[in-house]
Every structure is written in C-alpha cells, then in structure tokens.
Amino acid sequence: MRLYSPKYIREILDRFGFRFSKSLGQNFLIDGNIVRNIVKGANISKDDYVLEIGPGIGTLTEELAINAKKVVSVELDKKLLPILEYTLSKYDNVEIVNGDILKIDIKGLIDEKLGGGPVKVVANLPYYVTTPIIARLIEDDLNIESITVMVQKEVADRMVAGPGNKQYGSLTVFVNFYSEPRILLTVPKTVFMPQPKVDSAVIRLNIKENNTDVDRKLFFKVVKAAFSQRRKTILNSLSNKDLGLDKEKTKEILEKCNISPNERAENLKIEDFIKISKTLPSLNIY
Ligand code: SAM
Question: In this structure, what are the phi and psi dihedrals at residue 208, rounded to the nearest 5 degrees?
Fold first, then answer.
C-alpha cells in the first residue's frame, strides 16, 4: 500500500506510537494526486539529485525515490526516524539525515551525498519556518537548480505579486532577485492530516544565474528600508541612518535613477531597487 493512504498512515502512526507535533509544522499529505503532481511539477527524472526537507513518514519521499536518481531527506524530528526506516526500506536511493535544515551544512551535504549538485529541492515545508528555509536555500550560493515547495497560499501569492499589488513586498523582491517563481497548483486543506488552518499552494522557483554585479548586502538593506513603512514615500523611507542617507542625499540618488521621490516602494520594480543599490556607492559614504 502507498504511503498517502490515510488508513495506512493511521496504522503506521499507531504502530510506532507517533503523535503529530504542531510546533514542528507536521501536516502530512494524504492525497496521491497531489503527491504525484508535486513531483511532476518539479520535473524530476532519473538523472536528478533531490534534496527533500521534512520527509514526515516518507509520503513525498517515496514518490521522489521512484522518479529520481537519489534523494536525501533532512528531518528534524528524531521520532520519525524509525518510521522512515520502516516505510522506505525498499528504496536504496534514499538517505535520511537527522538535522535542522536551518543549521546543517547544506553545501557539505550536497557535495558528499548528492554528487555536488545541481540539485532540485522538493518539499512540503513546515510552515513556521518557510521564509528562513527559502532564504537559506537561495542566498547561500548553493548548487541548486530549482526549489519546488508546498507553502501557505498567502506566501505563494506574495512571492509572485507584481508591483502595485497589495501583496508585493520585500519577500517578492527577494525571491524574484534570485529566482523565477511560478505557482503550479493551489491545494485545499483537506489533503493533509491533520488539516492546517490555511489553504496551500505549490510553487516552483527556478534559480537564476548569479546577479554578481550587485552588492547583495546593500541591495537588501535598500529593499528592507524601502518596505519598512509601506505608506511612506520612497524619499522618506530611504532617508534613514541604516543607509547613512539624509533627505538631500536620497533625493540626489533618486534623481540619478529617474525615480520620483514621491513614489512608494510597492510601485518600484526590482530593477529600480538594483539601480538604487548600484548608484549608492557613488556618494562615497560606504
Ligand atoms: N513531507 C511530509 C508530507 O508531505 O507528508 C511531511 C511534511 S510536514 C508539512 C513538515 C515536516 O518537516 C515534518 O516532518 C517536520 O517534522 C519537519 N521539520 C520541521 N522543522 C524542520 C526543520 N527545521 N528541519 C527539517 N525538518 C523539519
């Protein structure tokens, strides 16, 4: 029997005396179609090395093992390890690593266990740490080709929002700076056990080539400052100590970038933030 069968999941959980931990974001998939569609949407083939985050009892892992060359799954909850050993015993291309994805050496893991990459990341993410996990995966110059993940629908909407949209914010700019995001499917609460409170979506981020000519630290400082108070004009939000800018200097920068000082961050394109970051060093204050 396949692992997405609710009856089988209950049987396994009973046998191992496992209880769901809300604080670890444990909402397991119980729908075969969704599991297959995630793996299809990630374009997984027998040539692919896959990094999975949070295998749970191995439902998505199993589908990945059937379709990929090798799967390494990082699970934080020690109580799931004996279950995973049992449920995935017939697959010899899966390795479970016990650890916190926010703390482990991901580069070392890719080098040692996933042929150095490029890898495809696939996961039904624990929602309490969605953003830090994605930040870690895309910021750290890892050899990752794409990230296909289940997230809260509201978070997926923020990632793909365009300028002028209410959901457009620093997360949008951050994600689009590093990748091309695309929502693959929206997912109702009913396909999880236990059911979460919110609807979900599967999103794929195709990682872009490096934007090497931008000082990333400065870029994100600019974006953070710009969105820190959304209702302020860009002139006011960028005039702050963190950036070392007073109003005169900010005006000068915005003029050089052809951006109106009365504009609001939510109407600026990523290219505008890049332009500002590239122009700032001309003030010789960094
Ligand atoms: N993949 C399974 C599925 O789809 O049925 C389970 C997904 S569940 C939403 C999230 C999983 O991530 C849980 O197994 C949880 O224990 C694990 N997890 C939570 N925090 C983690 C972390 N920081 N690092 C690695 N795994 C984590």
Answer: -85, 160
Helices 270-279 and 247-256 sit at what angle, rounded to 10 degrees? 120
Tens-binned pLDDT, residue by residue, of the chain (286 aa): 788 889 999 999 999 999 999 999 999 999 999 999 999 999 999 999 999 999 999 999 999 999 999 999 999 999 999 999 999 999 999 999 999 999 999 999 999 999 999 999 999 999 999 999 999 999 888 999 999 999 999 999 999 999 999 999 999 999 999 999 999 999 999 999 999 999 999 999 999 987 668 898 899 999 999 999 888 999 999 998 788 889 999 999 999 999 999 999 999 999 999 999 999 887 766 5
216-282 fold: Helicase, Ruva Protein; domain 3 (1.10.8)
Q: Which token pair is 141?
A: 């110059």
Q: Atom of ligand 1 at shortest distance to CA of 52?
A: 1
**Rounded distance from Cα 126 to ligand 1 centre (Å):** 5
Q: What is the CATH number of domain 6-207?
A: 3.40.50.150
Q: Which atom, in ligand 1's list, is nearest to the CA of 35?
A: 4
Ligand 1 lined by 51 (C-beta under 6 Å)? no
Among residues 259, 256, 255, the alpha carbon closest in space to that of 268 is found at: 259
126 Cβ inside 6 Å of ligand 1 = yes
The domain segmentation of the chain, as residue ranges, is 6-207, 216-282
The residue whose C-alpha atom lies closest to atom 5 belonging to ligand 1 is: 28
Q: What is the pTM of this model?
A: 0.95
Nearest to 74 by CA among 105, 43, 40: 105
Q: Is the CB of 97 under 6 A from ligand 1?
A: no
Q: Is the CB of residue 142 below 6 angstroms from any atom belonging to ligand 1? A: no
